[in-house]
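Notes from hallway chat w/ T.B., transcribed later so I don't forget. T.B. wanted the structure written out for a chain they're using in a teaching module, and asked if we could keep both sequence and structure tokens in one place. Agreed to drop them here.
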Amino acid sequence: MNDSNRPANAASSDALIARARTAALAAYAPYSRFSVGCAIESVDGEIVVGANMENACYRLGICAEIAALTAAQQAFGLDKIARVAVAGGHVGPDGALAGNAPVTPCGGCRQAILEAAHVSGRDLEITSANGDGTEAIVSRISELIPLGFGPASLKDAG
């Protein structure tokens, strides 16, 4: 696995980024015009994807990461998640995903990925790619949400 905040160059990372970029093209983003895709790979190599889905009632929109986490839970379980890739940007006139800046998960999605990390017992690798697919950074969920609130935080609940 790549060191954190180093460009992702491994072929497996490129393949997962490609799946996330393709998923972004299926996003429903008529309001923001910012399409995000997420690909999640299991420890067994199975891959599921999700894309953001906006709603005219803005708060009812769903992030790509949540869609992909739901698909992962159904396909193989949160305990088997190995890696996550996120990519996003705008869909250009040629129908391709474009954008310069790597897209990282929002705070709520970081929290949801942290939950999956606690369930899996692994500090999950997150690859954040730009829309063009030309730049990516690799981080661990513990870096993206330090001092996160997880299942163990509830040990004192009554």
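Follow-up for T.B.: The chain is about 30% helix and 25% strand. Might be a good example for the class.
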